[in-house]
Amino acid sequence: MKRILVSQPKPKTEKSPYYDIEKKYDVEIIFRPFIKVEGLSAKEFRQQRLMIPDYTAVIFTARTAIDHFFRLCKETRYTVPDTQKYFCVSEAVANYLQKYIIYRKRKIFFAESGKLEDLVPLIQKHNKETYMMAVSDVHNDQPNALDEHGITYVKAIMYRTVSNDFGPDEPLDYDMLCFFSPAGVKSLMTNFPDFKQDKIAIAAMGNSTVEAVKDAGLKLDATITPETPSMPAAIEKYLKKKKVPLRKTEPEQD
User: Fold this and answer.
1) Has this prediction a pTM greater than 0.90?
2) Which of 42, 81, 164, 166 is an S-S bond match for 170, by CB 3.0 to 4.6 Å?
């Protein structure tokens, strides 16, 4: 076990637990997303027959959704009014709005728990608003907390997830592959249609990703559990199981 591919962008901080694993074990972690996000054009968005000015409130579940909402507003030459209301799944998502608006002057609401279901009471208090939820093309079509409580809203697809193609000479020479979405697994099989797992370990985060790994006929070696609640924790548990040696430290100089 020498090279681990984490299919996410490289962390922006040096304090990432992935780097702790590199320091602790004799492994190299490479960050190489299998997927990337691209926005729908204004023309593509209009094909949904939705008009942003028709909605007085927007529901955001991710910062990416905020980016593409304001991008489409700009591309369609729509000036978002100060009266627009924003309902965010978490405080972190709500704070991201400061990139585009003066936070203290707007109507912004968020769930303390980070769960969509805890937005429901806030939305119910503002039942005269017309709601739009900004989503990607791979959003889950299963009923969510809003549907279960009879909230009237529309899902507006504003961005899509696409395969981040590998170059023709780019090898897949890794000992472990870590996935975070079904789209990442799909991208693997698209880029490498003759892929054979052999001794390559596979880790997956989330139930839908785990199912995608199994549906692709691959063997799952590590995943998120209450004992290992993050991907770095799941990786380290697997390394311990395989008795991967600790990295040798350089002797201190006198």
Assistant:
1) no
2) 166
- Which residue type is seen at 173? D
128 with 150, same domain: the answer is yes
> Cβ neighbours of residue 21 under 8 Å, at least 6 residues apart?
27, 29, 232, 235, 236, 239
Residue count of the chain: 254
Position 58 in a domain: yes
Selected residue with higher pLDDT from 69 and 229: 69
Q: Six-digit token pair at 137?
A: 């093309």
Q: How many CA atoms lie within 13 A of 36 on its CB side?
A: 7
Residue where one domain finishes, among candidates 136, 161, 186: 161
The answer to whether position 57 is within a domain reads yes
Give the model confidence (pLDDT) of 46-67 as tens digits: 999 999 999 999 999 999 999 9
DSSP code for 244: P
